[in-house]
Amino acid sequence: MRATFVVAAFAAACASVCAQAAPAPEVVTYRIVDRFAGRDGYWDFATIDPVAGAIYIARGDAIERIELATRKVTDALVPARRAHQVLVLDGGATLFETDGETGLGRFVSTTDGKVFAEVETGAKPDAAFFDSATGLIAVMNAGDGTVALIDPKTHALAGKITVGGGLEFGVADGKGGGFINIEDANAIARIDLRSKRRTGTIALPGCDGPTGLALVANGTRLISACANRVALVIDAKSGKTLATLAIGADPDAVLVDETRGLAFIPCGGSGTLVALSLADPSHIAVAGVIATQRGAKTGAIDPRDGRIYLPAATLGPIAPGAKRGQPVPGSFTVLVVAPAKKGDKALQYLNPAAFEPTRTLPAPATKGSPAETLELKRVHALIDGAGAARIAQAKADSDLEDPSIFDTAAGRDLKALPNTWAVLTLVQSETDLAVGSSKNFFNRIRPWGVDPTIHNCENEPGAKPTRGYPSGHSGLGYSVGWTLAQLLPDRAPAILDRARDYAVSREICGAHYATDTEASHVVGTLSAWMLANDPRLAGLYEAARDELAAPASH
C-alpha cells in the first residue's frame, strides 16, 4: 500500500452497470465521537483485537497499542522499521507484523512485546492476511511482486507465489484461495495458496490504481477502492464488474462491518469515509459520506460496537508536485467514528470555548423591557403584513430544516451531491450545537410565549416557549448559506437572500424576535468560517467545490 503520512449522510446515486435501477439504500449517519492523541510519525494499517479491546497501529518505527477502555497508549510495544500490517493471532497472544525495510515477517508476543520469530518474506513486505482454510499467512511483497506464504505454527516460509506488479491489499476467500489488488496493472490477481500459484486475473475497467480490497456478501462480491475516486463492485466468481461507485480521493482500505451490513472506504485526500450498503449484494451502493479529516485513509472496525478507528494527522499545505501536505507536529490522532445518536452534544471540529455565550453574544432584551416591546411590535407588523402565501412559506420553512432549503437558490439538488451534502450537513450540525449552548444559557421566552395573541405556526404539542435566543433555524440558514455562497460565488446573492428570508420566516411564525435571528447570523457565520478554514476539512471542501463546478443537471 502507499505510504501514509498522514456527518452527515445521504443516499447517493452511483454510476452502475446494473441493468435495473435499485432502490436507494437506507441513509447511514455516523459522526466523530472521540479522538486518541498519539506521537508524531508515519503510520499505515490498524487492526482491532476485540477480545483484548485494543487497537494496534503499524507505525514507522514501532507497533503502537491503544487500550480502548482505559485509553492507555503504548507508543512502542515493539520497535519496527517501516511497519505496514499487524495481524492478531493465537486469540490475541501473538502479533504478526510486516517490516517493510528489513524484508521480514515478525512474530511478537503481546505480553512483553518481544519478537520471538522472524521470517524472510521478500522485498518490501506490505499488506498481509491470514487464511483460515490453509492456516497460512499471505504476505504481499510490494518490492518484488511475490506473495510469501508463512506457517504461523512453525514460523517458517511455506512457499512463494509469483504474481508480478505492484501488490497492494489482499483478502482470503475462505477456501484456500485469495484475491490481490495489483496497483500498476489495474487488476486483481486470483491466487491458490494450496498449489502456490496464480490462477487468474480480474480486469478492473475504469479503475486506476486499486489499493483497498474487501470480500463481502458471503464471499460473492469484491470491492476494490481505486485512486481515481471510484470503487468497483465485482462478482467474485465471474470477475464481472457490477457497479462503479463514486468515492473520494486517496483511498487505501475497505473496512467491512458484516454485522451491520456496511463497508467503509476511508479517503485520505478528501477527508471522508464513504459508507456502502451491503444489504442487497446485487446492488451494493453508496449509503453515506461521513466527514473525517484529510489524511485519514486507513483504519479498523471494532466488531463489538461498530466503532471505526482512523489514524490521521493534520496536514499542511500541499507543496507543488507533492501528493499531500506534511503532518503538522503534535497533530497525530486516532479518530473514533460511531453511529450517530439522537441527542449527541459534542462538537466534532469547533472549539466550544470559542462559542461561550457571554463571549459571543450580548444578552437579549429582558422580559417586559421597552426593547422587548419594540421587538414585539415588529413581529406583529410582519405577521399583519404577510399575505397567505408568505405565511404558508413561513410554515413550510419551519417544517424544512436541512440544507435543501437552498436548492432553488443554488440551482442544484444538493442532496444528490454527496460531498457537498456532507459539508453542508456538517456545518448545520456544528452550528446547531454552537447555537444550542447560547439557547440554554439565555433561555429567552419566545414571542408567542410573551403574547398569547400571536399564533405559533409550528403548533407542536407540548412545545415550550423557551430557548428563543438565538434561533436554530436561522443558524442553519446563515451558516449553510454563507458556506454555499463561498462554494458557489456566482449564486451568492440569491443564496444569501434566501438565508435572510428563511430567518424572517421565524418572525412571521411568532417563534423568534429579530435579535434572535441576528444572533444566529453571528454564530452561524462564525462557525461556518471556522469550519471552512479548518485544514482537517480542506479536502472535503475541495471535493464539494469540484462537484459544484460541474454543470447543473436539470
Automatic annotation (TrEMBL):
The residues forming the signal peptide are: 1-21
- SUPFAM superfamilies found in the cross-reference section: Acid phosphatase/Vanadium-dependent haloperoxidase, C-terminal (heme d1) domain of cytochrome cd1-nitrite reductase
Q: Record's superkingdom?
A: Bacteria
> Pfam families, alphabetically?
PAP2 (PF01569)
Q: Report domain Phosphatidic acid phosphatase type 2/haloperoxidase positions.
A: 421-532
Its keywords, alphabetically, are: Signal
InterPro entries noted in UniProt:
Haem_d1_sf, Host-pathogen_enzymatic-act, PAP2/HPO, PAP2/HPO_sf, WD40/YVTN_repeat-like_dom_sf
- PANTHER family named among the record's database cross-references: DIHYDRO-HEME D1 DEHYDROGENASE, PROTEIN NIRF
- Protein name stated in the entry: Phosphatase PAP2 family protein
**Protein source organism:** Sphingomonas immobilis
